[in-house]
Recover the amino acids of this structure.
């Protein structure tokens, strides 16, 4: 029985990364400009989910290569552009946003990802809302 538990533990550690739940997930972005009359709600996909990490409490005992703090991030993405309605002629009414095509567990790249999750909710509209399905 104990050899079965040891094998199960080893398989779980070996394939834990492959079984992580990091995948494209539906998300709604709310976009508005001060000059425009409407807020645009854009349905898109982002990378979200669980990635296997290793606790860094034992960092003095382990090699740096064995310590990892992976996040669910973009493997492949494309950009789409939406038109914000109700903008005056002197305002650029376009908004470009990333769309997750595929995701991976890896290091967070601050060039295109927000690596800090804040508790403050800022994704809402203060103006009348229009829905954009892309």
């Amino acid at each position: 029985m104990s050899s079965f538990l040891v094998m199960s533990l080893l398989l779980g550690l070996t394939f834990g990364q492959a079984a992580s739940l990091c995948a494209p997930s539906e998300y709604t972005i709310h976009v508005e400009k001060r000059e425009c009359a409407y807020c645009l709600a854009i349905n898109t996909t982002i990378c979200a989910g669980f990635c296997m990490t290793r606790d860094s409490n034992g960092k003095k005992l382990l090699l740096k290569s064995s310590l990892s703090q992976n996040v669910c991030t973009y493997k492949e993405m494309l950009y789409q552009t939406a038109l914000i309605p109700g903008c005056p002629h002197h305002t650029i009414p376009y908004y470009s946003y990333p769309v997750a095509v595929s995701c991976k567990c890896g290091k967070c790249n601050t060039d295109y990802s927000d690596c800090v999750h804040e508790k403050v909710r800022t994704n809402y509209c203060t103006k009348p809302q229009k829905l954009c399905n892309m």
